[in-house]
Amino acid sequence: MHGGALMSLCDIAAALCAAAQVEPGQVTTTAESSTYFLAPLRGDSATAVARPVRVGRALICVEVDVHDAQGRHCARTTQLLAVTQS
User: Fold this and answer.
1) Helix (H) or strand (E) holding 34
2) Do 19 and 60 touch, CB atoms closer than 8 A?
3) Given pLDDT bands bounded at 50, 70 and 90, which one contains residue 86?
4) 30 contacts: CB under 8 Å, gap ≥ 6
C-alpha cells in the first residue's frame, strides 16, 4: 500500500475516534500528524485501530495502529486534533 494512502487511512480513523469524543455542536480538525512506517504493508487489506490517548477541551490526542492481513504491525500514527464549535 502506498504511504500516502496509508496516512489517509490513519487520518480517517483518527478523525472518527476524535469525533466520538466531542459534544454535539463540536467538530475536530487535524492540527498535527506524525506517521511511523514500521513494515511494508503488502496485499489488499489493512486494519486500523484508533484510540484516544488524551481528551481535552481544546485538543484530542489519538493514536492509530495499522496491521496487515497477517497481523503484522505496519504503521503507527499519532495525531493532535483541535476541537472547535461548528
Assistant:
1) strand 26-37
2) no
3) confident
4) 11, 14, 15, 79, 80, 81, 82
Q: What kind of architecture, by CATH, is found in domain 3-85?
A: Roll (3.10)
Q: Are 74 and 65 in contact (CB under 8 A)?
A: no
How do strand 73-85 and strand 59-68 relate by DSSP bridges?
A: antiparallel
How does pLDDT run across 25-73, given as a tens digit for each residue? 999 999 999 999 999 998 889 999 999 999 999 999 999 999 999 999 9
Measure the CA–CA gap between 53 and 63, rounded to whole angstroms: 7
